[in-house]
Amino acid sequence: MTDQLDLIVGCTFGFSASQPTSSVVQVAPAPQADTQMVEERWETGAPHHTYLDGYGNRCERFLFPSGPSTLRYSAKVLHTDPDDPAEIPLAAETPPVDLPDETLAFLMPSRFCQPDELGSEAWNRFGEITPGSGRVQAVVDYVHNLIEFTPGGSNPWTTAADVFRARQGVCRDYAHLAISLCRALNIPSRYVFGYISDVGVPAPVEPMDFAAWFEAYLDGEWHTFDPRNNRQRTGRVIVGRGRDAADCALITSFGALELTHFEVVATERTT
To answer: Most buried residue among 60, 86, 92, 96 by CB atoms closer than 10 A?
Structure first.
């Protein structure tokens, strides 16, 4: 068990634009009770400022110049509760009539999550399982085993229903499908993306990237579930939450902005 963890997280983007392009970038850690920002740095020649969106996510507005440009972001954070729970916390489902008003949006269909289209599948597979965290974990196990992790196997327009049919995708696709199935079972579920450190796991074959998982509302609290990894991880640093990936996009550009370089870091700070 890790009591606390010093992490360096960040990313580097290379861009090319034919004209000055306004953009919103989400890469900075969102405020978290268990994560303290020690230091952060933006390196770019583009003018920018920070704002919080409707979900409380930190967003950075940029005006990237025409031609090539580079954006580097780095942060040193202290994670005071870095380990996922070793076992699934026992938690009951809340009947829809008793759900807080603010959770109801996370039951509804959204851009990439379709509980209405996948409802029959959800109830046929999971309807007889005892409601609660065990049923959510059954959804997670199913999605983890169903989907083959395939970089390039989906695109920015791929929905949960598309993933269910194709049986392949990346971490955001795992999250969208699990969220859709949980919402169909009347379990509020929201999309989460951020950094996951490489602490305690073998080095992956593919380059480090941002990660996506989800949170389910059970027994009055939001609980973390990760259908892509489906194992205990250390050092999750949340960047954004929303109904799905459309609510917390990594980059939103209001014009043509070509991504020419992409790097992500999330590792333990040793000095």
So the answer is: 60
* 0.85 exceeded by pTM: yes
Residue 70 has pLDDT above 80, yes or no: yes
Rounded to whole angstroms, the Cα distance separating 87 from 90 reads 9
Distance (Å, whole) CA 185 – CA 179: 10
pLDDT, tens only, 155-171: 999 999 999 999 999 99
Task: Map out the domains of the chain with their CATH numbers.
Answer: 5-82+250-268 (2.60.40.2250), 96-247 (3.10.620.30)
Which residues 6+ apart lie within 8 Å of 119 measured at CB?
184
